[in-house]
Amino acid sequence: MLISLFLSIYAALFHYHAFVFDPSVGFETRSTALSNQRLALDNLIERAADEEHIKSISKREITDDNMQQKDELPVDHKDINNSEAKPKMPVGACQQYFVLGTMIPYKIILPLSKLIFKVPSFNSLFNVRMMERLCAIDSIIDSEISVNGLNATNLKYLPFSFNLPYYTMCLNMDVPSNSCSSLNSNYINMFKSLILACQSDESSFQCQLPIAKQLSNMIFQKSNGPIDVNQPFYFAVVLPILQSNDGYSNLYFYSSLLHKIQEDYKDDELKLAGAQFGVKDGLFAQEIRSDVQLGVILGIEFFPFLNLLAMILVVAVGADDAFLFMYQYRKHKADVCKKWSPVLLNCDANNTKEENSDKEEA
After folding, report:
1. Of 155, 72, 76, which is closest to residue 107 (Cα–Cα)?
2. What are the domain boundaries of the chain?
3. What is the DSSP string of 275-304?
4. Predicted local distance difference test score (pLDDT) of residue 76
5. What pLDDT was estimated at residue 68?
6. Secondary structure, 3-state, the chain
7. What is the pTM (predicted TM-score) of this model?
8. pLDDT of residue 79
9. I need a surface site. Which of 95, 272, 336, 357 has the fewest CB within 10 A?
10. Residues of the chain with pLDDT under 70
11. What whole-number distance in Å separates Cα of residue 218 and Cα of residue 109?
12. For position 333, what pLDDT does the model report?
């Protein structure tokens, strides 16, 4: 027992640097996109040129005429939250989709909240009942904004979500696209046919329209070939509300909205598969605060979930390995002492006594 405890403590001390008590560090696995990006960033910071090295390099003057202008700039949540930067509100969803990239810049899409849904098949998605359920998302958002008293804020940045039901209404511009009552089964089936046609031939005129590009870039999952209409299908809904810019603001609203959407879309017919509201850090901190009783009872200021589990595993594995090692060592030592000279193998008299006592007990 003492040997097992010693080996466990030794293993913990030897790998002490691997235990991280920061909740925001070390939660991604290796060989993933996130871990590779983090590794690249750490290496970049270590190997980046310092200020003295940069000043020592000769430089030339560059005028504005020689600089290339970029249409897409990094997105700043503070600028987008500004009321002055808010675009003019379209009167219908189709108008909003058509002005994306002109009156509404593409960079607006990045800070907007998103949802991912799963349906049993592509065919099961295109019917009136399914489109009505999806179309109700905007009403859920408006209701939650009103309940939480956020009507006066710029949280809702656009009037409509980028949602499949509204896209089906765009086949007939004479029909207003600002209400779910405008859904029509004929246009839904026609919209489905156009999507499948564009999958096989993207060169047609309809497939080059901005709305068609929005569907392939923002709504539908990426695929290397034609859509298998009988396989499970994933698609996105880009919500008209902004993500939290710091992970903590309006946390109660996002939590309430997520809970409401999870309750309404949890069946196999239409299931919520993912959500992005930018509040991951806030929710994580909230869950940690809910475990504060552990600190009160055990006197631990912070309860490191995964790190404590790793320590338990180190102790368990170390104790198990020590037990097996000692058992195998004694067994093989006794066997060898029977065949070879005790002097050569350093088999003392105590080992012989232990062997005899084991036989007597057996």
Report:
1. 72
2. 93-279, 308-340
3. EE-S-HHHHHHHHHHHTHHHHHHH--SS--
4. 55
5. 46
6. CHHHHHHHHHHHHHCHHHCCCCCCCCCCCCCCHHHHHHHHHHHHHHHCCCHHHHHHCCCCCCCHHHCCCCCCCCCCHHHHHCHHHCCCCCCCHHHHHHCECCCECHHHHCCEEEEEEEECCHHHHCCHHHHHHHHCHHHHHHHHHHHCCCCCCCCECCCCCECHHHHHHCCCCCCCCCCHHHCCHHHHHHHHHHHHHHHHCCCCCHHHCHHHHHHHHHHECCCCCCCCCCCCEEEEEEEEEECCCCCCCCHHHHHHHHHHHHHHCECCCCEEEEEECCCHHHHHHHHHHHCHHHHHHHCCCCCCHHHHHHHHHHHHHHHHHHHHHHHHHHHHHHHHHHHCCHHHHCCCHHHHHHHHHHHHHC
7. 0.59
8. 54
9. 357
10. 1, 15-34, 45, 53-55, 57-89, 290-308, 336-362
11. 9
12. 75
Residue 243 pLDDT: 92
